[in-house]
Amino acid sequence: MPFDFRRFDIYRKVPKDLTQPTYTGAIISVCCCLFILFLFLSELTGFITTEVVNELYVDDPDKDSGGKIDVSLNISLPNLHCELVGLDIQDEMGRHEVGHIDNSMKVPLNNGAGCRFEGQFSINKPSPPTTTS
């Protein structure tokens, strides 16, 4: 007796003469297909849509640091050229510095296609929003 691999078939075919289509079955099938399409499109939309958040909030863990918080950044941007990377500093006390270049360095990544930005700066307390662009 030869080995029959077909006996492992979980979804065996039922002969057409033993089945009968119904309106209820059709409605359930259509609703399931629409639900699957809805889930697919919502996941695809969530995957494609990105939200860019460009604010960094700094906590104040030490009250005795003299009114300044030292911040060090090391950010890798694999698909952004170095000439497009800059640092703008703004705090709640009114200090606004555009294009901060002191103690900062730009290192090209991926043959110039990306950039690693390293920088150090001090900001005033209380914790300000700092924008990196």
From TrEMBL:
PANTHER family: ENDOPLASMIC RETICULUM-GOLGI INTERMEDIATE COMPARTMENT PROTEIN, ENDOPLASMIC RETICULUM-GOLGI INTERMEDIATE COMPARTMENT PROTEIN 1. The chain crosses the membrane at residues 21-41. Pfam families: ERGIC_N. Plays a role in transport between endoplasmic reticulum and Golgi. The gene is ERGIC1. One of its GO terms (biological process) is endoplasmic reticulum to Golgi vesicle-mediated transport. It is found in: Endoplasmic reticulum membrane; Endoplasmic reticulum-Golgi intermediate compartment membrane; Golgi apparatus membrane. InterPro entries: Erv (IPR045888), Erv_N (IPR039542). The keyword Transport applies. It is a multi-pass membrane protein. This is Endoplasmic reticulum-Golgi intermediate compartment protein. It comes from the Eukaryota. Belongs to the ERGIC family. It comes from Equus asinus (Donkey). GO terms for cellular component: COPII-coated ER to Golgi transport vesicle; endoplasmic reticulum membrane; endoplasmic reticulum-Golgi intermediate compartment membrane; Golgi membrane. Residues 5-97 form the Endoplasmic reticulum vesicle transporter N-terminal domain. The keyword Ion transport does not apply. Keywords: Endoplasmic reticulum, ER-Golgi transport, Golgi apparatus, Membrane, Transmembrane, Transmembrane helix, Transport.
